[in-house]
C-alpha cells in the first residue's frame, strides 16, 4: 500500500483525518500512521500540519499551503527563545536534546549541569551509567557500599542505569556492526555508527563540566582496558579539575587510578577509595611502586578518609603506608592472623601514624585473643586492655575492634 501512495501525498489526508478523530498525541498518531502507510511516506512536519488542522475542525483537504508564510525551523528561533525552551527541560531531557545536532549542543552546554552523583562501569561490550541530579528515587541506595549492601546496590544500579550496548541481549532486537543500543528502563534506541563507551564518556564529561558544581559521589569502575584508555583524554580536556567529595575507583588492570586521580580537585575531596580487584592482572608485578604512587598524590594525602581495598591474597607491602598518618586498609579475604600481626607490628614503628584501620571482609576467628594482643606489645596485656606503650614517649597505641560496612576492623590509634 505504501508503494502505491508514494507519489500521491494528497491521498494521505483522509488517513491523517482518521488519526485526528482518535485525538491521540500528535507524535503517537504519526508513529501509528507511519507503521500503516510507510516510514518514508510523509515527513513529520507535513503530518503535523494537517493533523493540527483537522484537530481544530478545519477539514478542507484541498487547502493550498503555498500562500502560507514559510515556517521557521527550530534553529532559526532567536537565542533568547531557545534559552527559554531549554530552561523548561530537566537535566535528563537536556542531555537527550543536546544530541540532536551541534548547534543545540552548544546552546544546552551554555547552562551548566547540576548532577550530584555519578557511577559508570566500562565493560568490553557495554557501558552502564547512572547520573543523579538529586531527583533519584528515595528508595535508591548510596552508590558506595559493601557486602550485602553492595549486592543490593549493584542490583538497583543495573535496573536504573542507562546501558550503552554493542550487543543486544534481546532476541527481537538486531544490531548491525557499528550500532549502539541505548536502553533506559524498558525503552530501547538504536544509534548507528556509535561506540558504547564513547557515548557514555560524552555524557559523563558533560555531567562534570560545571565549574561551580561539587559532586557528592563519583564511582568509576573499569573492566575493559582498551575502552577505558580513551577516558583519560576526556578528563584532560576538561577546563577544570573534577570537584567531588567522595571518589571510588575500582580497578581490574592495576593502573586505572593513575588515569583519574590527577584530574580530581584536591580542595574538595574528602574520601578516596581505590578498590584493587585486579582480576585481569596480579598484584605481584610492581605492586609496591603502584601503591607508593597512589599515596604520593595530593588527592590521597589531603583526604580525611583514604582507603585501599585489596582483593589479592598476596602479602601486602605495608611499608608503602608507613608515611601516611591516617588510612584504612581493607582485605577481601583473610590470610591468617600471623600476617595480620606482622602488619600491626610494622605499623607500631611508624613515627607519624595517627590512626589506621585494617579490615577483613570475611571476618576473623581468633582462638586466644589475649595472647595474640600480648605478642604485639611484647608485654602481658589482656584483650580488654588494648594499649601498647610507645618507647621513649608518654604516648601509646590503642588497639580496638569494630564491625563496619560488613568488615571486621582493627583500629590502631595513637593516644597522647
UniProtKB/TrEMBL annotation:
Q: Which GO terms describe its biological process?
A: innate immune response
SMART domains reported in the protein's UniProt record: FBOX
In which domain of life is the source organism classified? Eukaryota
Which spans are transmembrane here?
Answer: none
Boundaries of every F-box domain copy: 71-118
Protein name as catalogued: F-box domain-containing protein
The source organism is Caenorhabditis remanei (Caenorhabditis vulgaris)
